[in-house]
């Protein structure tokens, strides 16, 4: 072992050196071969602790080298390069010296890598696939797990729902007549389902091929319906990620398992919420009660296996006609019982718990975006597919159907554009791949704006008013719709009484049936948005900000995700809403 003496590295703390070897941090497995106390040593500068990067090295250091002066460390050359962030692994895993201006080295890191991505027929992973192919054309193959009866049907979905979408028009322009050929060498559709326990339902003839090639797995598959049936949400969001992880363990080259979760796995937590992984059994109701000192001591353990059994038994006990409604109610009831707002958040949180429990030494990155909306810049501003979380609300306002809404006047909507989420995913993946020290750990990133650049709830409605006043929504006869400033209410109850009052007193040509329907729909919107319009948590994004700090100037330009740079008025009025109207409302 080559000894290198570094004066500049600060010691991990707290450190007490009584025995040797001594493990002082679990993650880096630092060990000290010394009987001496580091703080004393640093003060009088006489004693000489020796620090090695792993226990093997520490055991090989029998005594302090006589020539070591002051605080010196015995490190391998590789260790030193890693610590100074001047080295990275090449595609074969060999250590290479890195140019410090490279930043994370995203492009180099992902070039030649083979990826396996789920959920690419959906909104987010489609943006991810486009971004990778456009900015890292030397990436290896990308296997896409697609729900379909066979690989041929999966290929049809790939063409219709991915390759031929307008989102890919920049790539089409770049490759011209070679576009289809380029896409078919890169994108390999694989029929499968994260609810299938045997190799995700992938045809056996493909399993070994995929398992021997894949370097990175990214899981974006989910059901995102807030009040999904409990049995369905458990199957996809809770068990799905761990089924994929079991498959990942067959992939002998695998270097990263990335899971897309949601910042709202933090359920009813309040205040600044840190980027911490969940552990099995975490019960937010208990945690929140303990914090607010209202702990009654009677909180039930969150036992995922028991939840799965309960959902299965319940489903079998209900007749077909009532099963859907009853299973939806059950999901909401179980979520609230344990401190989450809805079935989606709760089942996603349990998905994270199972991943953390079963990951072993698989390197895992969990990305938790907040509310994802249309693209900020790339591949072009305002691309969106379908109505996302905020959109029904804002459109109801724009169409003149909403006259008021219940919100916390100090509240925020935690929004983040889709291309920033994707850029953060690419940077986080590359960072994990190029870091040699913490490879088998679990990293969590909040990709969210509420802690650093909040979009106020009142501001959002102000911006949408400005947009729809300037560019009015046109009704089915092509006539512009006139809209007014929304009246905001402090509670759902106040809002409900207001709108019932409006319904009773309003005259005009609108039929009573239509008015009644509007009232019911407004009440429904108020109810389902309540957890978000009164959300008391702010998602800390320290890990995500650190990732930005590691990037080079060039990387920040090509893979930027600094939510602090977003001008919300500009984004909502002139990027997101025009994009939504162009892409989803066909220009209305
Ligand atoms: N959209 C947001 O605002 C938001 C915010 C935070 C986090 N997230 C997370 O981001 C991820 C992507 O969300 P998204 O908005 O892109 O969702 P999305 O548009 O609803 O797409 C979901 C994707 O998952 C696939 N899928 C569902 N069930 C599956 C199964 N059993 N097996 C295989 N694939 C399955 C869907 O395939 P089909 O096309 O076959 O249905 C689709 O491709 C999710 O994990 C979500 O929790 C989303």
Automatic annotation (TrEMBL):
Record domain Fatty acyl-CoA reductase C-terminal: where: 513-585
Function: Catalyzes the reduction of fatty acyl-CoA to fatty alcohols.
PANTHER family: FATTY ACYL-COA REDUCTASE CG8306-RELATED, MALE STERILITY PROTEIN 2-RELATED
Biological processes, Gene Ontology terms: long-chain fatty-acyl-CoA metabolic process; suberin biosynthetic process
Keyword set includes Oxidoreductase: yes
Family: Belongs to the fatty acyl-CoA reductase family.
Molecular-function GO terms, alphabetical: alcohol-forming long-chain fatty acyl-CoA reductase activity; alcohol-forming very long-chain fatty acyl-CoA reductase activity
Protein name, as recorded: Fatty acyl-CoA reductase
Species of the source: Stephania cephalantha
Catalysed conversion reaction: a long-chain fatty acyl-CoA + 2 NADPH + 2 H(+) = a long-chain primary fatty alcohol + 2 NADP(+) + CoA
First-level EC class: oxidoreductase
Domain Thioester reductase (TE): 117-425
InterPro entries: FAR, FAR_C, FAR_NAD-bd, NAD(P)-bd_dom_sf
SUPFAM superfamilies: NAD(P)-binding Rossmann-fold domains
Alphabetically ordered keywords of this record: Lipid biosynthesis, Lipid metabolism, NADP, Oxidoreductase
Enzyme Commission (EC) number: 1.2.1.84
């Amino acid at each position: 072992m080559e000894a290198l003496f570094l004066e500049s590295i600060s010691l991990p703390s707290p450190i007490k050196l009584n025995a040797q070897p001594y493990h002082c941090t679990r993650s880096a497995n630092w060990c000290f071969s010394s009987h001496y106390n580091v703080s004393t040593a640093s003060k009088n500068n006489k004693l000489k602790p020796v620090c090695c990067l792993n226990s093997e090295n520490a055991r090989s250091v029998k005594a302090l080298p006589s020539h070591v002066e002051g605080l010196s460390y015995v490190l391998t050359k590789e260790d030193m390069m890693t610590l100074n962030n001047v080295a990275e692994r090449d595609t074969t895993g060999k250590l290479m010296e890195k140019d410090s201006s490279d930043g994370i080295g995203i492009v180099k890191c992902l070039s030649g890598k083979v990826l396996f991505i789920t959920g690419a027929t959906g909104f987010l992973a489609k943006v991810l696939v486009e971004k990778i192919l456009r900015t890292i054309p030397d990436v290896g193959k990308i296997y896409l797990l697609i729900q379909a009866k066979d690989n041929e049907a999966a290929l049809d979905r790939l063409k219709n729902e991915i390759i031929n979408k307008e989102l890919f028009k920049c790539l089409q322009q770049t490759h011209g007549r070679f576009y289809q050929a380029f896409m078919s060498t890169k994108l390999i559709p694989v029929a499968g389902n994260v609810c299938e326990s045997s190799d995700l339902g992938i045809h056996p003839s493909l399993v070994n091929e995929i398992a021997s090639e894949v370097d990175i797995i990214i899981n974006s598959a989910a059901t995102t319906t807030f009040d999904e049936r409990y049995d369905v949400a458990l199957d996809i969001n809770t068990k799905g990620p761990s089924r994929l992880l079991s498959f990942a363990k067959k992939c002998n080259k695998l270097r990263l398992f990335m899971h897309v979760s949601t910042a709202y796995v933090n359920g009813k937590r309040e205040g600044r919420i840190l980027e911490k992984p969940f552990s099995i059994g975490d019960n937010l109701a208990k945690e929140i009660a303990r914090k607010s000192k209202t702990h009654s001591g009677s909180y039930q353990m969150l036992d995922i296996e028991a939840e799965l059994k309960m959902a299965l038994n319940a489903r079998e006990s209900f007749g077909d006609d009532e099963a859907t409604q009853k299973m939806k109610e059950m999901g909401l009831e179980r979520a609230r019982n344990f401190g989450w707002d809805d079935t989606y958040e709760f089942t996603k949180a349990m998905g994270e718990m199972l991943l953390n429990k079963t990951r072993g030494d698989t390197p895992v990155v969990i990305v938790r975006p907040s509310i994802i909306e249309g693209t900020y810049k790339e591949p072009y501003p305002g691309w969106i597919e379908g109505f996302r979380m905020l959109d029904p609300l804002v459109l109801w306002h724009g169409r003149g159907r909403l006259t008021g809404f219940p919100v916390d006047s100090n509240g925020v909507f935690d929004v983040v554009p889709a291309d920033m989420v994707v850029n953060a995913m690419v940077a986080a993946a590359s960072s994990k791949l190029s870091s040699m020290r913490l490879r088998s750990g679990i990293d969590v990133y909040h990709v969210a704006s509420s802690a650093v650049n909040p979009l106020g709830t009142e501001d959002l409605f102000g911006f949408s008013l400005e947009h729809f006043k300037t560019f009015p929504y046109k009704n089915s006869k092509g006539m512009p719709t006139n809209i007014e400033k929304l009246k905001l209410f402090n509670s759902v109850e106040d809002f409900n009484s207001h709108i019932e009052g409006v319904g009773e007193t309003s005259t005009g040509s609108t039929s009573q049936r239509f008015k009644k329907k509007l009232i019911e729909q407004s009440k429904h919107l108020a109810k389902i948005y309540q957890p978000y319009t009164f959300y008391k948590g702010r998602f800390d994004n320290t890990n995500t900000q650190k990732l930005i700090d590691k990037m080079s100037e060039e990387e920040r330009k090509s893979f930027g995700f600094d939510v602090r740079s977003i001008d919300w008025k500009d984004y909502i009025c002139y990027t997101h809403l025009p994009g939504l109207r162009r892409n989803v409302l066909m220009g209305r």
